[in-house]
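Researcher: Re-running this chain for the archive, since the previous output was lost when a drive failed. Same request as before.
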Amino acid sequence: MVGLGGYHLVRPELPEAESIRIIRAAIDNGLNFLDNCWDYNGGQSELRMGKALRDGYRQRAFLMTKIDGRDTKTGARQIEESLRRLETDHIDLLQFHEIIRMNDPDRIFAAGGAMEAAVEAKKAGKIRYIGFTGHKDPHVHLYMLTKAKQRGFRFDTVQMPLNVMDAHFRSFQTHVLPVLLKDKIGVLGMKSMGGGVFLKRKVVTPLECLHYALSLPTSVVITGIDSMRILEQAFEAMRTFSPLTRQQVASLLAKTSKAATDGQYELFKTTSHFDSTAQNPEWLGGEPSRVKSLASD
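Model: Regenerated structure tokens:
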């Protein structure tokens, strides 16, 4: 039901030993979907998770990580680095990270693009499933899905914001979710609390946020966990969960409609604050080889 977000495992005030304790406590209590990314905290999130997965824990977890590379060479290098950091011979789910620009699908699917690296890694048994993530605009997600169909490729998963504010503004729930359900693609919900911003508005509680996201037809809802207290909050959300009724959903949406209409509390959609690849374009790598060849003609 709930997945453990990897980014929050590295905080200045969070010792490595405590990160490992959180991961293992999550797995011991049945929360076994682990999220991560090649670029989280300079690789420290993957390194800590790799240590936590020693002593038999790797076999008990579904391990997901993401890469930023858009060309084959960069993508392949990042996959290998993630495998090394996570101390595993395979990643259960590899996702292309931050599909937030309209040209990201073109770069990934181009000759010499990162999709070639992912497919090759899958053939070699280094990854099991392939998906993509993004938080900016549902139309970018739809274009990525269209591009995949044009190339005869079917994604296994898509990760996107699904929360009480999203329904009102540039909505992934409205535009992307129905397509995923129709095509039987796994739905990974994220940013159920808007990166914590929703809670500052004090319109909704953490449990309301999680219960709303869990009431949608998701495969898993990923949430950031940086303490044993927040881990217990996730467990409480699961223990107390039953799908919200239409009346409960309508009540939550009514409470959030005014705050949500211009996207001011979904900063990942309306600002560049959450766009790590925009702030670090070198993580994307170069343009695919065919693009370079055409540009020089």
